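Re-run with default settings, no changes from the original entry. Doing this only to confirm the output is reproducible before filing.
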Amino acid sequence: MEVDDVEQNLLQQFSCMGTTDHEVLVSQLRKLVGDDVNETTAAFFLDMNQWNLQAAICSYFEFQSTHKLPNMTLVQDVTIGEGESVPPSTNFVKTWKVSNSGEDRWPEGSYLAFTGGVNLSSQNTVPVLPLNPGEMTDISVDMNSPAQPGIYESKWRMATPGGSYFGDTIWVILTVAEGGTLALTQQLTHFNALGSVIPNGSSPPFNPFAGQTNVRPHLHHQDYSQMGP
């Protein structure tokens, strides 16, 4: 992408503003260049050009023309229970299958970054192992639903170690509602997976009541408090 692709009248308007507020300049550069630049990268190019907005944009596009970014394609949202609502203040996991759809291996230190909306995770970044071209992997993020029912959006993107975004944008659109079942679905799936396979050479767990009839174990009151409905 060349500088000519940016509307010149916008560049002139911003250059004439003469603002020295660094936060405003960072915001303006990101607005002009797009979502591929985070705040750290925008501040870097502005600082390198004495916080001159037009010069910083020119430097950014010049850099982009000589440094090819990796690529990532979102293959599928493979979250267990995807589409189900979640109860308030409940832990759950989002999982996406992604692929390296570019021609180069992802650099060491690449990560998935929260970039906008409501952060439903305690993490802002999640490390991702480098993929060779054509390889796929699953990326999981532990999340917690907000306390108030409603619909929440969260945006995530892959980033290089230097903070440059690449590939598809990953959106989380979450419905929080009383009686939501997504977390329960994930828990049941997890328990089924734990109990579905007996390792080779292992015997089934000993059942002390096997072969007995009409035997009912005595339960103390404290046992009832630990039982589910």
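The chain has six helices and seven strands. Residues 197-229 have pLDDT under 50 and may be disordered.
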